[in-house]
Amino acid sequence: MVMFLLRALIFLASAALGLLVADALLSGFRIDWSDWWGFVLCIVIFAVLQSVLAPWIAKVARRYAPALLGGIGIISTLVSLLIVVLLPIGGMHITDAQSWILAPVIVWVVTAVATVLLPMVFIKRKAEDRRDGRRA
Questions:
Q1: CA–CA dist 57, 6 (Å, integer)
Q2: Per residue in 42-95, pLDDT tens?
Q3: What is the mean pLDDT of the chain?
């Protein structure tokens, strides 16, 4: 149970990091900081959508468009962003075509890298804590 919660927390943190990087790099991608609770809700909805949509889109692509299988992560990121932006919670906005094209790529790359690196940081820290506990 602890590992499941840790993985969920890492996935939420990586999604937040991806959205923050897109906000920093793209002028048409805007996080509404006056409504921080809306942004937190956007992160949670985005992460849940991403984890649900990726397998579903892969199944559909495998059946109808096998050439799209390599881009499932970017496609599910685009669909998740679209849904989150269209929801009336107001934490995030994408206003121009360039941002609609680049945001899924940026968010996908940052989320993928963070999902790989964050567990290494936590596992290393946990191993060091255990080692220090045995020495004491």
A1: 26
A2: 899 999 988 888 888 888 888 888 877 778 889 899 999 999 999 888 788 999
A3: 86
Residue 9 counted as domain residue = no
Are 19 and 46 within 8 A, CB to CB? yes
Helix, strand or coil, per DSSP, at residue 30? strand
CA 39 to chain centre: 13
Query: In DSSP terms, which residues pair with 30 in a beta bridge?
Result: 93
33/71 Cα distance (integer angstroms): 31
Residue 123 resides in a domain = no
Residue range 24-29: mean pLDDT, rounded = 95
The pTM (predicted TM-score) of the whole model is 0.81
Which of 5, 17, 42, 9 shows the shortest CA–CA distance to 112? 17
Domain extent at residue 31: 14-111
Number of domains in the chain: 1
